[in-house]
Write a structure and sequence with these properties.
The protein is an alpha+beta fold. The chain has one domain. The chain contains four helices and seven strands; from the N terminus they run H-E-E-H-E-E-E-H-E-E-H. The protein has a seven-stranded mixed sheet.
Amino acid sequence: MPRHQVPPDEWQYRDRSSDQVRGTLLRLTRDFVLASRQIRGVIRIALLGSLATSKARPKDADVLVSIRPPLDLAPLARLARRFQGRAQGINSTADVFLATPEGEYLGRVCHYRECYRRRSCRARNCGTWPHLNDDLDVVALPDSSVVEPPLVLHPTIMAAATVPDDIVDLLLAPGVVPSNSPRSCSDHSALNGRADG
């Protein structure tokens, strides 16, 4: 895509194709979901933002993880840093947002390996809960996104809208979806309108 035709929110991708951007972000999201759903205390994992739509070159990957506090966030933070680091390989990024099962938004997983007060840290309570970046003054999710995210991937699959085919192929494929969710996602009726498998 010639530089003058690149939309302002996609400049970082330059000439990368949709598969190089979207496909890579979806594969990285799949890897994150498969690993993080094994962590005790992870209750729900959902996909948010433009990656949950059919946008060809989404800005980043946004994942919402509902956890049961108190939870040692170190294992989840390690996975989140790997997710973000790999996304940076295509000049993108990934954010892992945290919420309680009751729908209270907590903040994001901190991208620093070690927790200690930094000048650039915008967390309200840096270090109080290690690896939680409660920068609620900087980033806040709408309550509706926390309570009813566009696409829940774990423990069951629930979709608030039509699910793009590449998400069905990469994130809802056998081996990725939980055993109590629809295995055959070629039938989009199982995924639309908040259907639960």
